[in-house]
Write a structure and sequence with these properties.
Structural class: alpha+beta
Strand content: 15-25%
Order of helices and strands: HEEEHHEEEHH
Helix content: 25-40%
Shape: globular
Largest sheet: 3 strands, antiparallel
CATH class: Alpha Beta
CATH topology: NE0471 N-terminal domain-like
Length: about 150
């Protein structure tokens, strides 16, 4: 008997995957206006065609990187999207400059790609992904997110 194609997933992962399978309306994932406040160092804001407004800090976006490596690390550690990795305990806490994008590039008409000050650059932030991780109160509440921007 073959078990090929059978995966055992946690209830949380199954819920997340089923939510990802639900398609959002085209206007919900089509930006009307995108503002990347790179010079100010604050973050990204998107006004969507359906009238919704989303905003994320750069730190939150870096911690929510959708690349396979970051996604897998978050899943293994149980860390929610947008939450930073815990820092190692040390006697003397060293200052660490906040992560910022060095470069922001559009990817076709469907996403943004960031090159971060920490050297990471493999995540492609699709419009659909960004809408699904919207941090406004209206979106966070139904998802039960513990992390906000």
């Amino acid at each position: 008997m073959s078990h090929e194609g059978i995966r055992i997933v946690s209830a949380e992962q199954a819920q997340r995957e089923s939510a990802e399978e639900e398609r959002l309306h085209e206007d919900a994932v089509t930006p009307k206006k995108v503002r990347v406040m790179k010079t100010e160092g604050t973050g990204v804001e998107i006004n969507w065609k359906d009238g919704h407004h989303s905003a994320w800090s750069f730190a939150w976006l870096r911690n929510a990187c959708p690349c396979a490596t970051c996604h897998e690390e978050r899943d293994k550690s149980g860390r929610p999207v947008g939450v930073a990795k815990p820092k190692a305990q040390t006697l003397l806490v060293m200052y660490e400059a906040p992560v910022r994008p060095v470069e922001v590039t559009p990817v076709g008409k469907y996403a943004l790609k960031f090159k971060w000050t920490d050297g990471h650059e493999s995540g492609i932030y699709s419009w659909e992904y960004l809408r699904r991780v919207c941090q406004c109160e209206m979106c966070v509440k139904p998802r039960g997110d513990s992390a906000s921007s």
